[in-house]
Amino acid sequence: MQGNRPDVYITTPLYYVNSYPHIGHTFTTVVADVVKRHYQQLGKKVYFLTGTDEHGEKIAIAANNAGKDPKSFVDENSKRFKSVWDDMGISYDDFIRTTEERHKKVVRGLLQELYEKGDIYFASYEGNYCLGCERFITESELVDGKCPDHGTEPKKVKEENYFFKMSKYADQLKKEFESKKDIIRPEWYRKEVLGYLNEKIDDLCISRPMDRVSWGIELPFDNRFVTYVWFDALLNYISAIGYPDPSYRGYWDVCEHFIAKDILRTHTVYWGTMLLASGIPIYKHLNVHGYWNMSGIKMSKSLGNVVEPSSFKEKYGDEGLRFFFLREMRWGEDADFTIERFVLRYNSDLANNYGNLISRTMGMVEKYYSDKDYLDIKSELPKEHVLKDQLEKLVNSYKADFSSCEFNKAMENMWRLFDDTNKFIADSKPWDLAKTGNKGELDKVIMPVLEVIRICTYMLLPVMPKVSSAILLELGSDNIEKTTFDEFCRWGSQDRIKAKYVNKKFFNRIEENTGGA
Predict the structure, then answer these.
(1) What are phi and psi of 127, to 5 degrees?
(2) How many domains does the chain have?
(3) Are residues 144 and 254 in the same domain?
(4) What is the set of active-site residues?
(5) CA 133 to CA 270: how far, in whole Å?
(6) I need a labelling partner for 55 at 20 to 30 A (CA). Which of 99, 115, 448, 516 fits?
(7) Can you give the residue range of the structural domain that contains 184?
(8) What is the spatial distance between Cα 116 and Cα 120, in angstroms, rounded to a whole number?
């Protein structure tokens, strides 16, 4: 992979293919895609990795229940994830599967290295094993004797296994997270991780006996055991970028992980100590989001309360969902997903507010400038204007909000500007100015509004790429991909705007009785 060093390397978790993709998986992947597209607007080179986690006990059980062998089962389900990401317009650069030889080779190589180094040893262990998590969980993690994520009581398991000396690297990891204040975002998750590291850190069981779990990567130093699924899956972040070839550092040094909070411990304590033991630096950022809940309960395949994205797209489309994700969830916190909330948000923000602003403005342009094919917006646009001031503030805050994963805030600020722009139209009464024939005053209303629509639509390209591209095409904006964010978002940067349109309505209201779903 030499010669292709990116400015940013974005990863999602590898999704577990014991079942189909749901809205929770889709959210993480959409956010990663939106961030990639935004960075590209800023002129940055971005590499985006996603994929599927395909080994482990739950996979073997699910395959058996489906009457299939594990390989056929994971092949089918991995394709489903890939298909959904394609349906959702996800622009990933690589899709890695843990059953691929390029990944297994790295896992075996690193295990052998740590074993020879003395960081892996053989011992007997008894502990609380959660099948849902596929890991031993500590007493301090239990809530009323149950796993907090799966609501089930763990089984007492006693067996001989291989262990990674995780405790050996706990203090070093703690110092890393203490010294790098913004490595985990939002900040409260960093404090939570430091809380883990203030507790006693046990060594990590990194194998499963073949007679209990045969579906996995065999340990290179003992074929009676397979690799623990987390020690396998986490290595995808480096196996996909050519590790151990030194060129992997060109990617790794700019790595941005995006995960949900349920895998915070594995991506900090487990992954962090694995990296330190291997002599690999800690990632640049770990960006952690909350849960999508339904009726206040975490959306989860194991709980059976999931929304399937393909059927959702078939009924409502994909771009409204992409917008809803960023508009509705405050990064790091939990949010509720219901069809009713989605429909209300879509109708109020897209159909009524933004969509109505576009259609009414284009309608006025066609009516009041019927003698023109194009408006010379650069020459007619006022140099100073209240909307210009607001727009410039938005452009600056938008970049900052995206950089800190405050997508909800970025959307709120933009829709506040749409509110003000709609109010500006109502207060300025361009229909009255058109009647009096006062073209100069009419231009001072129409041109700034068009400029707000043009620039804001460009900023929304990463969120809703298809519809935003269609709107910009109607406005006569071209060479979008060859223009950087700062260039395009400069007031008056486009010479002219089209005055006749093929389409003026881009967001139709969803008319249905959601029944409070």
Answers:
(1) -165, 180
(2) 2
(3) yes
(4) 22, 25, 130, 133, 147, 150, 298, 301
(5) 14
(6) 115
(7) 8-289
(8) 8
